[in-house]
Design a protein that fits this description.
Elements: H1 2-9, E1 66-72, E2 87-88, E3 92-99, E4 104-109, E5 113-122, E6 125-131, E7 135-138, H2 150-158, E8 163-164, H3 167-172, H4 176-190, E9 200-203, H5 206-211, H6 213-216, E10 222-226, E11 235-238, H7 241-254, E12 258-262, E13 266-275, E14 278-286, E15 298-303, H8 307-317, E16 325-333, E17 338-344, H9 355-373, H10 382-399, H11 409-421, H12 462-483
Helix pairs in contact: 10-12
Length: about 475
């Protein structure tokens, strides 16, 4: 582990383990949930496995001038094609690695960032790779009804990996009541007419549901949402107090919180999305008779954006420090009113025939963020930097050793300029002001600008000159070898 970490942190590897350094994993991970993920430094890749998402062909990027983008999404979308041929910083390539949360292990270090280990199956071939991501695009829910990948989210944050959306904001989406509480804040600021949030009640446990049943009775039917889930999971329509008590007993078994809201008989759902500065709006109507328009068969239609929808998206995009991607879900009731019911981040569902266009917008958004957060740091190799310092120590010190060493034309010009700016300077008529070719004016009154390194005065004892020079050289070399 320490060996691989040292190799991974060394400058000559450009922040990643190379394929030739990989060894077969000792114990492949079993099961879909890495509740205690093994360190990627212990489960590295098998030799000979090529890079890229779907093929084992030779990579099409410059491995010495590239940034690694990790996309967390299922295998139905090949995100590498949206970044193929794209450049950042002029000539830096984008290396795309893609995997689902269930296929990822990671370890994060305070000194070298985050190390990711992926084990995926592509076209019947098992691919195992280790790398250091420079940027992250999350297109899956971090938490759902039966999954919770916050342990990986914590690792990415620990390793300082920038992301779309920001990891801080994604952590805020781990509980829907927490998100809804922030929507309530927006409604209080804008008003119910401008931000028509559906009325909802929150219960931390089943006991509160039963004890407050009398408050719900006049509002039946109601929708009970149990815990944190997506895509219609955990949502039940309740028509009577007796059924409500039954569902409360289910909540007791789950040991989770629950929310209730009045059932709205809707004409259709409204989906408003914002990707960067691109806005779209859709309506979705169930044609299968299901009260959940996002399940079963539904009719989807893109509609024109209006200022009202744009305000919804813009206000929600300001939550949690800012969301690069956001989608607002609402219901158009048969009573003619609109009700906002939820908001999602970068894991939002893309709808309709514009999904390809939306993915391109996401890719452009990611490229723009990588230009900001992944800027390469200029570095100088130890050989060149040490060589330059030694050259400076030897040659530069000799240039300052006195009149016996030739001066460059630039040094002579600088010296003449400084001498001409000294008041009362008359080197031809005043012997006190006479200065040899190795002299520079020392700071004092009348000096009009920053002076270069002072040169030793002529007339100083030659042995003293040599002694001072050797002392300076010793200090220079001590600084050089102390930094190596």
């Amino acid at each position: 582990m320490n060996f691989l970490k040292r190799r991974f942190s060394s400058g000559d590897l450009q922040g990643e383990l190379r394929d030739e350094d990989f060894i077969p994993p000792v114990a492949p991970r079993k099961g879909p949930s890495p509740s205690a993920p093994s360190s990627p430094s212990k489960t590295t890749s098998a030799p000979g496995i090529g890079r890229g998402f779907f093929s084992a062909n030779k990579p099409t990027y410059n491995r010495d001038r590239c940034k690694t983008l990790l996309v967390i999404d299922d295998c139905h979308t090949d995100w590498s094609k949206y970044f193929r041929g794209k450049k950042i910083f002029g000539d830096w390539d984008i290396r795309v690695e893609q995997a689902e949360f269930a296929e990822i292990n990671l370890a994060a270090y305070t000194d070298s960032g985050c190390m990711v280990d992926i084990q995926v199956n592509r076209n019947g071939t098992k691919v195992v790779r280790s790398f250091k991501p420079d940027f992250l695009l999350v297109r899956q829910h971090v938490r759902d009804a039966h999954e919770d990948w916050r342990n990986l989210l914590l690792g990415f944050q620990y390793g300082g990996v920038p992301s779309v959306n920001a990891l801080h904001s994604q952590y805020q989406f781990l509980d829907k009541p927490w998100v809804f509480a922030h929507l309530i804040m927006i409604q209080k600021r804008l008003g119910k007419e401008m931000f028509p949030l559906i009325e909802q009640a929150y219960y931390p446990n089943h006991k509160e549901m039963v004890s407050n049943l009398w408050l719900i009775t006049p509002k039946f039917p109601v929708v009970v949402k149990i815990g944190h889930a997506h895509s219609g999971l955990g949502k039940v329509k309740i028509d009577s107090p007796h059924s409500f008590q039954d569902i409360a007993s289910v909540v007791a078994v789950t040991r989770s919180y629950a929310t209730t809201e009045q059932f709205i008989e809707g004409k259709y759902d409204i989906h408003v999305q914002k990707i960067g500065n691109n806005y779209k709006a859709y309506l979705r109507k169930s044609i299968s008779g299901n009260w959940k328009a996002n399940t079963g068969s539904a009719m989807l239609e893109q509609i024109a954006m209006n200022e009202r929808f744009k305000t919804w998206a813009d206000e929600c995009a300001e939550m949690f420090g800012g969301l690069d991607m956001v989608a607002v879900g609402a219901i158009q009731g048969k009573d003619g009113k609109e009700y906002i019911i939820e908001v999602n981040g970068s894991s939002m569902t893309l709808l309709g025939e514009t999904q390809e266009e939306d993915r391109r917008h996401i890719a452009e958004l990611v490229l723009g963020k990588m230009q900001i957060y992944c800027r390469p740091t200029p570095t100088m190799s130890k050989t060149s930097s040490t060589g330059g310092l030694m050259h400076y120590a030897m040659n530069g010190s000799q240039d300052r050793m006195g009149p016996n060493q030739p001066m460059s034309q630039q040094q002579q010009q600088m010296q003449q300029n400084q001498m001409s700016q000294m008041p009362g300077n008359n080197p031809q008529g005043n012997p006190a002001n006479a200065r040899g070719p190795g002299m520079m004016p020392i700071g004092g009154q009348g000096q009009t600008g920053p002076s270069p390194m002072p040169l030793p005065q002529v007339g100083r004892n030659q042995s003293m000159d040599e002694e001072d020079t050797m002392r300076n050289l010793r200090k220079t070399f001590a600084g050089i070898f102390g930094d190596m």
